[in-house]
């Protein structure tokens, strides 16, 4: 069974994607930037953007019947190498005990105000 999850972001309709797709015991969460979707604003700092990314991801996972502990793979995209040491502790707060397979890449993102984008894949844990 396939379930599409949306945050209500106008970007999802315009670009033709879902925040997350649940397929069986898997949940694939799209690359998520630091927007506050309630206000459609982007914080200035990479720290605040990282926390917004994680909150949006957690909400999408929960809507699909998953939680952060189900995350098995994470991709982190940052726009400046200097952000590595800034975001590692924030990511560790969420994933320190979960320890998914992860990759961090320094690259350009779609808009200049975007400093980080995170995508995850989750596999529902069984008893």
TrEMBL record:
A Pfam family this chain is assigned to: Ribonuc_L-PSP
Database matches in InterPro entries: RutC-like_sf, YjgF/YER057c/UK114
UniProt cross-references to PANTHER family, sorted A to Z: BLR7761 PROTEIN, YJGH FAMILY PROTEIN
Protein name: Uncharacterized protein
Organism annotation: Mesorhizobium plurifarium
């Amino acid at each position: 069974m396939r379930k599409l999850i949306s945050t209500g972001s106008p970007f999802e309709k315009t670009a033709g994607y879902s925040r997350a797709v649940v397929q069986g015991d898997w949940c694939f969460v799209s690359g998520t930037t630091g927007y506050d979707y309630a206000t459609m604003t982007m914080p200035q700092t990479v720290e605040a953007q990282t926390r917004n990314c994680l909150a949006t991801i957690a909400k999408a996972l929960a809507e699909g019947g998953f939680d952060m502990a189900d995350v098995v793979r994470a991709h982190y995209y940052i726009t400046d190498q200097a952000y590595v040491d800034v975001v590692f502790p924030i990511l560790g707060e969420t994933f320190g005990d979960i320890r998914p397979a992860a990759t961090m890449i320094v690259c350009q993102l779609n808009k200049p105000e975007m400093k980080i984008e995170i995508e995850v894949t989750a596999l529902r844990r069984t008893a």
